[in-house]
Specification:
CATH class of the largest domain: Alpha Beta
CATH topology of the largest domain: Rossmann fold
Oligomer: single chain
Number of helices: 20
Shape: globular
Number of domains: 4
Structural class: alpha/beta
Strand content: 5-15%
Largest sheet: 8 strands, mixed
């Protein structure tokens, strides 16, 4: 029996995610947008659903596999475990997939991976897998965080800290949002082409709708905008709406000198460059040379080829003699605000990782403030929900400093928002910008605007 193309690609990607610690989103993008592969849209959609859906529900799937096999998932060969997860995910979450296809093709995947001796195990586990609510299978004595962890497929330590910080209702909304496919959002970069962009997206059955928050945003309900002429010509970019808002907080003016310290993959850099205009100077740095090379191509496609891209480690003193009017420090972080989009993070991140991230983020912000011009503005942002990476970094760097003060970004972003949307939706009385997946339907972002008082 042949295995369908979608299941073969999904299995191979999941194997690399586990074995190489690769990121599923990057692998999916590279494989599904390869012109030589000519993958049909329906195969691409099923592949994406299988990969990301399985990673979102991995803990619950593993709970059921351990219950059926009587073994820890760590005792199973990776190739066998992935076939079981893939089959079980289809049986429980993809009702349109025939059970026979889910079972039989999972068995064939094991054989294809040269684990024929496990074919009978995979067949038996999947054919006898429970179909009822998982909650009825949980021990009554299970702690609350562990119960929620299995039901909503997150780690206990994440749930424990979110319950303590956000409360039960907001935590449940967050867990549910993290297990839904996120909205596919685009930024319109050439407003004069709006009608042309919409016509093409509609012709390709992507069902474009206005963004929820930004005038310049679109949300799509199907298809792949990366295959469109609008994308290739740089009229649109694929970017979460909260991510699109962050550069607007800087309020960049034409002709200003702008530094994007941790710039890759370049979506925010392109927005900064457009705001600075041809008379401005934009410098984009990143510690990884290969990411800068990819970003250079992205910026060229987006009409921001004049950005100066340099390799630098922002945790070390910065090599600039000049100062900048505007600085964005979109710091590398845990990514706990993006768990719907990057579900593998929830299985890789450890609580102790937050201390190391805090130290690096502290250094990035402190060094960036050293090259901020008098009267200039800096935005520190992350896509993390964790205080160690957010408030504690800002408070620690600004402690006993009188030359920099936090300011509100309300007036900066209000002109970019849709009619009827007020910036107070995201910015609290303390001036902090924050989005939550369960509340705003975006990735979870944190940002603070700071102004030099020198």
């Amino acid at each position: 029996m042949d295995v369908s193309l979608a299941r073969r690609i999904a299995y191979d990607i999941l194997l690399r995610v586990e074995a190489e610690q690769a990121y599923a989103g990057e692998l999916l993008y590279a494989r599904l947008n390869d012109p030589a592969a000519r993958i049909k849209s329906e195969d691409a959609a099923l592949t994406t659903e299988l990969v990301l859906g399985l990673l979102r529900w991995q803990r619950q799937l593993d709970f059921l596999i351990e219950r059926q096999t009587g073994r820890s998932v760590g005792q199973l060969d990776l190739e066998v475990l992935l076939a079981l997860r893939l089959g079980l995910y289809q049986l429980r979450f993809l009702t349109r997939v025939p059970s026979s296809a889910a079972v039989n093709e999972s068995v064939e995947l094991v054989k294809r991976a040269r684990k024929r001796s496990a074919a009978a195990l995979v067949n038996a586990v999947l054919r006898h897998a429970p179909s009822g609510p998982v909650e009825t299978l949980l021990p009554a004595t299970l702690p609350a965080a562990a119960r929620l962890g299995i039901l909503h497929s997150h780690t206990d330590w994440m749930i424990e800290r979110w319950l303590a910080r956000f409360g039960e209702a907001q935590t449940l909304a967050l867990l549910e949002a993290n297990n839904r496919p996120p909205r596919l959002a685009c930024a319109i970069l050439d407003e004069s082409r709006r009608e042309q962009i919409l016509r093409e997206l509609e012709q390709k059955r992507m069902q474009p709708e206005p963004g929820r928050w930004l005038k310049s945003a679109l949300t799509l309900r199907g298809g792949n905008p990366a295959i469109t002429e609008a994308f290739r010509r740089g009229w649109i970019s694929i970017q979460d709406e909260a991510s699109q808002i962050v550069p607007h907080l800087l309020d960049v003016r034409p002709g200003q000198r702008v530094l994007d310290l941790c710039a890759a993959p370049g979506g925010k850099t392109a927005l900064l460059a457009r705001a600075a205009g041809e008379a401005g100077r934009v410098v984009a740095g990143d510690v990884h040379a290969h990411r800068l090379r990819a970003m250079t191509a992205t910026l060229k496609r987006l009409g921001a080829g004049g950005v100066q891209c340099i390799v630098l480690d922002g945790t070390s003193p910065l090599p600039f003699l000049a100062v900048f009017d505007r600085i964005l420090v979109d710091a590398p972080c845990s990514g706990t605000g993006t768990l719907a989009r990057n579900p593998e993070i929830r299985w890789r991140l450890k609580l102790e990782d937050l201390d190391d991230l805090h130290r690096r983020q502290f250094a990035l912000l402190a060094n960036a403030l050293g090259v901020l011009a008098p009267g200039g503005k800096l935005v520190y942002s992350t896509c993390s929900l964790e205080a160690e990476e957010n408030e504690q970094v800002v408070d620690g760097v600004l402690h006993n400093r009188e030359d920099v003060r936090p300011v509100s970004g309300l007036q900066a972003i209000q002109p970019h928002l849709r009619e009827g949307v007020h910036a107070a939706e995201f910015i609290g009385q303390n001036g902090v910008f924050r989005t939550m997946p369960g509340q705003h339907g975006t990735d979870g972002f944190f940002a603070v605007v700071m102004e030099s008082r020198r």
